[in-house]
Amino acid sequence: MKPRLDHRKAAPEAMRAMAALHAYVSHCGLEHRLLELVKLRASQINGCAWCIDMHTKELRADGEGEQRIYLLSAWRESPFYSERERAALGWTEALTRLSETAEVADDVYAAARAAFSEEELVKLTVAVVAINGANRINVAFRATPGAYQPAPRTGG
Questions:
Q1: pTM, to two decimals
Q2: 29: DSSP letter
Q3: Is 12-140 a CATH 2.60.120.10 domain?
Q4: What does each C-alpha distance from 59 to 5, 26, 41, 66, 84 come to in angstroms?
């Protein structure tokens, strides 16, 4: 599939604003692997090939196991995710599918609140907003996956 346009060149100021939001998320204090799982799951739901490629590579670079990456779309049926990750994934799915449900169910909120402080839940929500925004931009303009390479990891 051919890209429709280069959104970074077409509106650099807008893309700098998006980059600032993503930079905030990256440094908000939530665990990097948790954020990458959330980003990958939202990207799977939204069918964003660019972001699926990117966040799969990020997870692998962080040392995430293939099994957890492969089973992410079936996380409810898989024993390989912590309660905190499950709460984050449920929250991510509820917010990403908001147009289908018109609400976030009370049980999803309760699970998220049990796993995250109020501040953390707001930060997680901003992370979900950011990845859904990126998904929509990349899907709309048909960003071509494959070229993304994660930054080299330093130290242990």
A1: 0.95
A2: S
A3: no
A4: 28, 14, 12, 9, 17
